[in-house]
Amino acid sequence: MLGASWHRRAGECAWRRGVAAGLLACGLFGPPALGASGGAAPGPVAVAATPAAIPDLLLSGQKARFLGGLALSAKDPRFGGFSGMSLRRGQLRAVSDRGAWLQARMTTAASGAATGLTAPRLGALSAADGASLEGWTGDAEALAPDGAGGLWIGFENPHRIAAHPRLGATPRATAPPLAPPLDGVAPNRGVEALARLSDGALLAFSEFAETLDAPIRAWRLAQDEDALPLLIERIDGFAPSGADLGPDGALYLLERRADWATGLRMRIRRFDAATLSAAISGEAASLGLGETLLELDLRALIDNMEALSVEARADGQLVLTTLSDDNFSR
User: Strand, helix or coil at 275?
Assistant: First the structure.
């Protein structure tokens, strides 16, 4: 797993990365294996963290400054495949596409670079009946904090978004699953990213695309309201894999693309608060192109980056943290 972080300040951004099963922090500037998460009670897990770096030459011209990264690994077979993450005040929470959850505190150096994880714990996500989610139904792809200590978790197989009071707890019965209009979409092409808006609604992003140049599709979702469709202009066939709303009110979107010709690539785009407000109010149908902060390929030793979290440091500078889904490649 790989993780990294970037930091942004007055048009500049710094980044911190990690792999993993991997954790990638950035300052602003195949289907799941059946039954993989079950059988073991939640508890501590030993996680090894190795510093990861990117050659300075590959960072030239980026609107992000690399803070550092970690390659994370563990012997526990449930560790890996992390596709959704939240990092708030050093508290890391992540979910995997095999129905597992990870919780830990991330330690950092004075520079903002990640140095390791403390007190990591691993467990299985729960279904409404309290049983562990396993196989297809445990394919968690996205995570967003609900603002009250709980979490919204986006799943594929079937497509749904459920409210959990905490990792490992059963979904809240008073908050029925939100279902973006994804009828007819393949089981593994549904909700890939979630971001909680300031009004408590969610933005859900689908990786499905009719063509490589078709707009990215997203929806504003709220209880007892119709889904509001939104569009984002797609660039070079990239697809959304993670998202978060920054403390500055802007939307940050993590994207990836993998093909035989160019290999694996990642990108982070920013959509300012005014553009986002116009789109979710219905004044504009599209968020447009946004601002590209960062774009990297395999020369930078990136992994399959699938999760993004944005928060402000004590000095007011923004840090973007990304997390990779290593697809359990050991």
Answer: helix
